[in-house]
Amino acid sequence: MTQKSKFGKRLAYLRIEHNLSQRAFATKIGFSQELQSQIESGKRSPSPAYVIAIDNAFQFSMEEGQEWHRAACLQIGWLI
Predict the structure, then answer these.
(1) What's the CA gap between 68 and 62, in Å, rounded?
(2) H-helix segments, the chain
(3) The pTM is what?
């Protein structure tokens, strides 16, 4: 499984965990449903702005935040 696929699955889990459709999730973070679908399916990588928008939209616990940031940084090529 590629990093894009792993990130997409994690992203879909986050969305479903918050009971949001792709469209509602994308609207909440200020991006299109088409982009949301492409990232979840592993067809596109998220931009740093996309990751920051998710951070700003959701209140993560410390543990969730660390896990989320690690996955996001690996996906967009930032090493932590």
Answers:
(1) 10
(2) 3-17, 22-29, 33-40, 48-57, 62-76
(3) 0.76
pLDDT in tens, the chain (80 residues): 666 678 888 889 889 988 999 999 999 999 999 999 999 998 998 888 888 888 788 876 666 666 766 777 766 665 54
Cβ-based neighbour number of residue 69 at 10 Å: 15
Q: Spell out the domains of the chain, with CATH numbers in brackets.
A: 3-76 (1.10.260.40)
Closest CA to 48 of 78, 68, 25: 78
d(CA 50, CA 74): 14
3-state SS class at 18: coil
* Separation of alpha carbons 47 and 34, rounded Å: 14
Query: Can you tell me which residue has the tokens 């299109």?
Result: 32
